[in-house]
Amino acid sequence: MKQRPVALILAAGKGTRFKSRLIKILHPLLGRAMISHVLAMVRSLGIKDIIVVVGYQKNRVMEALKEENVQFVIQEEQLGTAHAVMAARAQLESLAHRDLLIINGDLPILRAESLQPLIDYHQREENALTFVTSIMDNPYGFGRVVEVSSGKYRVIEEREASPEEKKIKQANVGIYVFRIKDLLEALPQVKNDNSKGEYYLTDLIEILSFRGKKVRPFALPESEEIVGVNDRFELAQAIRLLQERKNRSLCLKGVTLLDPGSIWVEMEVEIEPDTVIWPGVILTGRTKIGSGCQIESFSVIRDSILGDNVHILPSSVIEGSYLENDTRVGPFSHLRPGTRLHRGARVGNFVEMKKTDFGPESKALHLSYLGDSKVGQRVNIGAGTITCNYDGLKKHETVIEDEVFVGSGTQLVAPVKVGQGAYIGAGSTITKNVSPEALAVARSRQIEKKGWAKRRKKKKD
Ligand code: UD1
Ligand code: CA
């Protein structure tokens, strides 16, 4: 088998039609930058050597891709697609015996299965250049393919095409496989004497043809896959298509999606079989969900891990948290980063937790805030319990040991510790540690003035 090609990804242009402060290829689709979709596709073709041409917002692009293990070349000024390839000349010199796949960074929905035949064909035929074409209903904006004589081709750009040439339906898609040696030999012949004053990569089709090299078109059916994402409407359509693919793969794995059109599940999210996702659920980042879970409507789960048989009731927000098996959360709960619910724990209506380790089978079912807390097993947190964890300068910890009963409306002024099995009377403001097995009541005693209301009424009369 021939060696896999090297890939060169063109990503120096701004993407003007996006009308964005951010370079087009860094816009995310389902939580992954547009260009990272292209990189993932290229990798699944078995390609390991990847060069990315950067220019506009190059530092942002290089920062965003710093963990992608690619080589960058910088094209300071964007003087055309051939000029972008020239920027990689030094890197390509040392790879002269290899093939080069050139592809734009704005093809996030292109699948490896669609490109594999291109590479196979190029290598089997030992072409010098294979360029992808497609017969399009409306090829407006694309270069048009002209067969000058048998086996000799030329691509004419839209803006240079004559009215006759504009009628040609065979478009140059902008994806190429070159034999690097031939590419490097011909590159210096590319001139910028055209209407844009740019160095056109498409000129190499003609140059190599007339040098007697084997240049061949490779036709792919017209589809969104091979047409770049050029504006934000096309971005929206690409996102929808990726979501459909993601949903499909989840369903085929055994996940039930009750209303696939209404959910948002990002690329990296993993879900195990027999979990049910209700309408309107949003799952983002590196979220992992076990099997047998119910994720009910309008819940948002970000960068969190859920075990098996976890039940999320509607409208809960869970971020950076770890929920063990058999836990139950919501409705209307907010779990913030650093929260861990141990097996069988339950968190209910309007409860917020942050950096809280909440023990097995413990319950906080109503209107509470637990921050920077460590809670043991089988603890009952009464309605309206609040950890006062912040003194205006620093955060302090609250420790509640196993089997504690915290009465409703309790404030725990941290740092504070409640010993194992202790009870706290409702409405207490706990400022000192509570001993194990003790009852702590920390509220002012109730007084009663007999007949007070009656006397008040009389005064008024
Ligand atoms: C190019 C082709 C055209 C084809 C079309 C398909 C040329 C001359 N024309 O036209 O035949 O139908 O693609 O989409 O190649 N880029 C750089 N540096 C530059 C210029 C461009 O990195 O100096 C990058 C852009 O970021 C973009 C890609 O190259 O990703 C294509 O450039 P663009 O200017 O969009 O080419 P088209 O005019 O679309
Ligand atoms: Ca383009």
CATH class of the largest domain: Alpha Beta
The overall average pLDDT, rounded, is 97
Query: What molecules are bound to this protein?
Result: uridine-diphosphate-N-acetylglucosamine, calcium ion
Number of domains: 2
> Strand share of the residues?
25-35%
Helix content: 10-25%
Report the CATH architecture of the largest domain. Alpha-Beta Complex
* Outline: elongated
What composes the largest sheet? 14 strands, parallel
| Total DSSP E strands | 39
N-C termini distance: 106 Å
CATH superfamily of the largest domain: Spore Coat Polysaccharide Biosynthesis Protein SpsA, Chain A
Specify the number of helices. 10
Report on the architecture of this protein.
The chain is 20% helix and 30% strand. By secondary structure, the protein is an alpha/beta fold. The chain has 2 domains: 6-226, Spore Coat Polysaccharide Biosynthesis Protein SpsA, Chain A, CATH 3.90.550.10; 232-440, UDP N-Acetylglucosamine Acyltransferase, domain 1, CATH 2.160.10. The longest helix is centred in the middle third of the chain and has 22 residues, at 232-253. The mean pLDDT is 97. The chain binds uridine-diphosphate-N-acetylglucosamine (UD1) and calcium ion. Residues 10-13, 53, 75, 78-81, 83-84, 104-106, 142-143, 155, 157, 171-174, 200-202, 228 line the site of uridine-diphosphate-N-acetylglucosamine.
